[in-house]
Write a structure and sequence with these properties.
The protein is an alpha/beta fold. The chain is 39% helix and 12% strand.
Length: 163
């Protein structure tokens, strides 16, 4: 095995709750960057975050430009999202597309934090969708259940729209 190049990934998103697919983002991006053999600091995001760059008044254009120009993005795709279109629809992302790596997750899985919150709110099992320690934390703190004070009713769905 060839020596690995150091990679630093900074991720953003709600991770609310963190799912196994959130953790997979790091693995897929790291493997891709190790193949390029270039030490880098990149913003790691899923397709839903890339789409939010188009949401009015959510991101400032100068912040998007600084992130993409200065550090770059590693964006892991997801079924139902057209990453190339998100880039082509944004003049900033078009200009900086040389600094955006689009990575395909080889194992497609549509686990989303929104789905997890809804399942928990209906009392359904989320075993094998979340790390056991996250499930234990949610139970210990009575999160997302019918009786909890916060049910996640004002959250983003998979398309980045508020529900």
């Amino acid at each position: 095995m060839k020596s690995r190049i150091p990679v630093v990934l900074l991720a953003c998103g709600s991770f609310n709750p963190i799912t196994n697919m959130h953790l997979r983002l790091f693995e897929v991006a790291r493997d891709h960057l190790h193949q390029t053999a270039v030490p880098e600091l990149k913003l790691l995001c899923g397709a839903d975050i890339l789409k939010t760059f188009q949401t009015p008044n959510l991101w400032k254009d100068e912040h998007i430009q600084e992130i993409v120009e200065k550090f770059g993005l590693v964006c892991v795709g997801r079924a139902g999202h057209d990453l190339k279109r998100y880039i082509s629809d944004s003049p900033i992302l078009q200009r900086c597309q040389h600094n955006i790596l689009l990575v395909r997750e080889p194992v497609q899985n549509e686990i989303s934090a929104t789905y997890i919150r809804r399942a928990l709110g209906h009392g359904h099992s989320v075993k094998y969708l979340l790390p056991d320690s996250v499930i234990a934390y949610i139970k210990d703190h009575n999160l997302y259940s019918r009786g909890s004070s916060w049910k996640g009713n004002s959250t983003q769905n998979n398309e980045g729209e508020t529900s």
